[in-house]
Amino acid sequence: MLDVMLSSFSSDSSPSDKDGGGGGDKELQEFLVIEKQRAQFNAQIHEFNEICWDKCVEKPSNKLDSKTETCLSNCVDRFIDVSLLVTQRFTQLLSKNAGGFN
Amino acid sequence: MEALAGAQLTGAQRDELMDQVKQQIALANAQELLGKMTEKCFKKCVQKPGTSLDSSEQKCVAMCMDRYMDSWNLVSKSYSTRLQKERQRL
């Protein structure tokens, strides 16, 4: 239900402006945009943590050792690097092949 | 939800709605963490499932949960730092 609510606020924010001259709706809308961003940020961390936990953490012990900590933070950065690189190259491939697909 | 369609909420109604949204997001977040933790710590701590969860497995699970949280917090910090860097680059 929440998803429906949030997506309807983000995707048709312009049509919903017409009925709300009142500033109150705007406040609510801004709140929802921020909460949605926060939720997306959290979801991203869950995903990264899962990937990097598998890569970096061996047997759980009394604390994360510094090697594991370094691995975890490098893992996040390198994953983002790969994601950017793949996106970039994929875009290039698409534009190069654009003629061929038609 | 019906009140939303009318788009005229009283201040109190709006506050209540905001509270509910926050609570539901927090709940979803906790459920996600719980699910992932269970899966990861089961994998790490129960190599060969026996007839019961023995005490070393239980200790392992407890430790694993703590480390998973540590890891979560560290990943969160690294991601925030990276986001800030990327924003400055724009």
From TrEMBL, chain A:
Subcellular location: Mitochondrion inner membrane
Topology class, membrane: Peripheral membrane protein
Basic and acidic residues bias (residue ranges): 15-26
Pfam families assigned to the protein according to its UniProt record, in alphabetical order: zf-Tim10_DDP (PF02953)
Keyword Membrane: yes
Annotated region (Disordered), positions in chain: 1-26
Residue ranges constituting the Tim10-like domain according to the UniProt record: 31-92
Annotated GO biological process: protein transport
Domain of life: Eukaryota
Keyword Mitochondrion tagged: yes
InterPro entries, alphabetized: Tim10-like, Tim10-like_dom_sf
Keywords, alphabetical: Chaperone, Disulfide bond, Membrane, Mitochondrion, Mitochondrion inner membrane, Protein transport, Translocation, Transport
Gene Ontology cellular component annotations, sorted alphabetically: mitochondrial inner membrane
The record's note on its domains: The twin CX3C motif contains 4 conserved Cys residues that form 2 disulfide bonds in the mitochondrial intermembrane space.
Function: Mitochondrial intermembrane chaperone that participates in the import and insertion of some multi-pass transmembrane proteins into the mitochondrial inner membrane. Also required for the transfer of beta-barrel precursors from the TOM complex to the sorting and assembly machinery (SAM complex) of the outer membrane. Acts as a chaperone-like protein that protects the hydrophobic precursors from aggregation and guide them through the mitochondrial intermembrane space.
Subunit structure: Heterohexamer.
Family: Belongs to the small Tim family.
Protein name from the UniProt record: Mitochondrial import inner membrane translocase subunit
Organism: Bemisia tabaci (Sweetpotato whitefly)
Automatic annotation (TrEMBL), chain B:
Function: Mitochondrial intermembrane chaperone that participates in the import and insertion of some multi-pass transmembrane proteins into the mitochondrial inner membrane. Also required for the transfer of beta-barrel precursors from the TOM complex to the sorting and assembly machinery (SAM complex) of the outer membrane. Acts as a chaperone-like protein that protects the hydrophobic precursors from aggregation and guide them through the mitochondrial intermembrane space.
Gene3D superfamilies: Mitochondrial import inner membrane translocase subunit tim13 like domains (1.10.287.810)
Topology of this chain in the membrane: Peripheral membrane protein
Keyword Disulfide bond listed: yes
Domain comment quoted from the record: The twin CX3C motif contains 4 conserved Cys residues that form 2 disulfide bonds in the mitochondrial intermembrane space.
Entry keyword Membrane: yes
Subcellular location: Mitochondrion inner membrane
One Gene Ontology molecular-function label: metal ion binding
Keywords for the protein's UniProt record, in alphabetical order: Chaperone, Disulfide bond, Membrane, Metal-binding, Mitochondrion, Mitochondrion inner membrane, Protein transport, Translocation, Transport, Zinc
Membership in a protein family: Belongs to the small Tim family.
A GO CC annotation given for this chain: mitochondrial intermembrane space chaperone complex
Oligomeric form and interacting partners: Heterohexamer.
Protein name, as recorded: Mitochondrial import inner membrane translocase subunit
Superkingdom as given in the UniProt entry: Eukaryota
InterPro entries hit by this protein: Tim10-like, Tim10-like_dom_sf
